[in-house]
Please model this.
Amino acid sequence: MPRHLAPLALALLLAACGDGEPLLPADAVLPDGGRYRGEVVDGRLQGEGRIDYANGVYYTGRFQDGLFEGPGEWHGASGERYQGNFHLGLFHGQGEFVYSDGTRYQGGFKQGRMHGEGHLQQGGMSYRGEFRDDRYHGLGTLEWPDGSRYQGHFVRGEPQGKGLRSNAEGEFAGTFKNGMLQGEGSYKGADGESYTGGFRNDLFHGKGRYQNAEGEVWSGHFADGALTGKGEFRGADGRHYAGEFRYWRFHGQGKLSLADGGVYQGQFANGEYAGEGTLTALDGVRTQGIWNDGELLRQADGQSRPDPLELGLLQQGLLLQQALDALPASTPAVELYSLTLAGDGKQSVFLREADYVSRLLRERFGARGNVTLTNHRDHLADRPLATRESLTRAVQALAERSGPEDLVFLYLTSHGSDDHKLSIDQPRLQLADLPASELAALLEPLRDRHKVVVISACYSGGFIPPLKDDRTLVMTAARADRVSFGCSEENDFTYFGRALFAEAFNQTDDLARAFELATARVAEREKADGFEPSEPQLWAPDAVLEHWKRLRKQQAEQALSAAPEAR
Model:
């Protein structure tokens, strides 16, 4: 808020320079040095006139009994100016005051202060509404340079009472006190999330209901911005939980109905089964005992159960070796070899997508050999892990089993970071992520093979520079500085994975055309969902495109030659 306006009599004594005094002689000289030009009646200034001071401050307008009264114009010491109505020597009624820094107020005044309806503009800030004693007071709208906005009641310069505040993140509506939302209110986020219920200091507090952009709902008792205490959760995938929470997570006693029809009832800690509980499967099979981090540690009869993580780790060397031993050696013909990797084991979408791509390459495109590396919370003991070391060994095996005439297709799907690393994450293990530069280095054994490398991850366009060469075609789900979409637990595909493998490759087997179709489909879906375009990227050397066409032509000829034998 601007400083209070000084009473006019004082302001006149603080004069500096003005617009220049008229050349005509003064009709009167006041005790304070002011020179007056106008009518003087019985020794008092009356009617239209002008008063000037030696340092340049002046007033022109109406006088009554020696004081400014009615319409007039005043110019101050530092370049400020007022034009409007006066009463008893003070700004009073409608007028406009412009400060030396460009701040401008238009509206009502009372006894020298902003009062009543008005519009104040200060820098990029704007307030339009009611004033009292130089402060926002009453109904008004306050807007800031960044686009933030408050509309509602003010008391002594602060949002107070019913109002609506909005910014780039969303909007808050309800009752404000000292500028913050207190009591019952609502919040609507820019990305589609919403909350209705109690607030304290702008944070969710009290009984309320929160829904995220995916349609998942948390309801119950909130404290300092998080669901804490008794509550309920309904997931977009069909999950339902009723029980105790701490900082949004299931924590304490509760009952969780799972998407697959199973039900767990018992104790939770940080979102996982922990303590005594019973898991009942859809077919009625019950597993009862002591749990920790979602795993059964001890059965109800007291017998301990082996840790699945430990059992899985014992199997990993054998699982990887079996997968690599299953790769057949190359033939004189052009063959297709493939490798798929699901990097993040916390969400099932990557597992489902990698498995689909593996089947498609094997059944539709005739892959002779395939290696699948998978991270997933439920498959530690029956699938080779996706780690940097297992990927290195798989690439080495592909280099040894394939020939220089063959083509290798690699598909990697996971989360990605803005510094261009692919997430390698298996629950309960500490695994290092895969940087783009390291992926390029570990593919070195395949340097003389024609390769197709497809990466579905956020920021995956950053993998193209270190990977691209004349023998490597690279497709990515996004630009180097953009995120991609669709990596939710309940999904079967990411947006890009579905568009390319489930849709485009079912229309054409031409690599460049498939990428073009997939890019258009992704853009349509992102626009419909209101997302920033991910802009998938392609590096496509002619040598790889021609080698792929040669492979597909040979496969077609082999299929035709085998057809009579089949009959």
